[in-house]
Amino acid sequence: MIKSLVPPCEGLTVPIAKIGGSKQLKSKGLRMELTITQPDDWHLHLRDGDLLKAIVPHSASHFGRAIVMPNLKPPITTTAAAVVYRDFILKALPSDSNFTPLMTLYLTDTTSPDEIKLAKRSGVVFAVKLYPAGATTNSQDGVTDLFGKCLPVLEEMAEQNMPLLVHGEVTDPNVDIFDREKVFIDTVLQPLIQRLPRLKVVMEHITTMDAVKFVESCKEGSVAATVTPQHLLLNRNAIFQGGLQPHNYCLPVLKREIHRQAIVSAVTSGSKRFFLGTDSAPHEKSKKESACGCAGIYNAPVALSLYAKVFEEMGALDKLEAFTSINGPDFYGLPRNTSKIKLNKTSWKVPEAFSFSFGDIIPMFAGNTLEWQPSLI
Ligand code: DOR
Ligand code: ZN
To answer: What GO cellular component term, any one, is given (predicted)?
Structure first.
């Protein structure tokens, strides 16, 4: 653990009320620390092979559980494949880790209602992911006919109380990339919820004011959203600042500042409808810094520091724990974690890169100094 850069100084107190009045917040001299229920990551890409082994310790060192996205090559379309993938993840974990992967299935036009029954019975599959075909990384096998071929499966999911996790963008190349989320809400999500009001839906990695309004207009406990650190901290300028910035490119793409502000207000309001989902999505450096760079931001090592920064800047540190550790399990109907994590307000430098035998992974905010350092207790 990196030591505090600020030496403890007896007798000085920090104005706790100013930063949210949180009961979990303690001041030790000039140092501040926050103790919260261990967070979960409700949207994570763990990949496979060497990349999985390289990166899973980063998530496992902070998060108790994670919803693991199924967009591998080939995608995880069956419960049998999810069970095998889960075993690979468990084997890749550090020996002392209690991290629990929560598996998902990749919805296709040919997924059967029986597969959903099997998934529910397995006890290891917790949701089904909808990738509109062509929307993002490894989505070529995704859905082309949601209201036709997929309808029986969606009905079975509603029956089994199995959440649908949605990559909410239309893929029509004629729709401007910055409008694809809004158009998806109007043409797919709203009709879907009207047709299947009992289906639990998570709108993943929301990026717009329109998504915030949509989620807030739906029934609490029925529709929710995950929010990434990048969509809370960056707007679309970050992709072009001083030259093309491939490490700030993800999908859905970063949006205008007004959208970022709307998302920040929503998550720091204390609403139960929003919870932590990093969408941490590593790609080896040469695949990002390329003529046709991959979408995805690797944020697992910095995510908790960044979420704490956002809540602190809004004077809402007392609402951080609900977002990171309570709203997610409550929505999924899973128990909250019993372990705790400590966030120390200590400066630490994000590595420039994580180097592995197969290449480098560049984290979000590489080389920058952050505050709020997490450690398990
Ligand atoms: O930026 C992204 N990267 N968005 C996604 O939806 C997929 C992800 C990935 O798997 O790389
Ligand atoms: Zn994702």
So the answer is: chloroplast
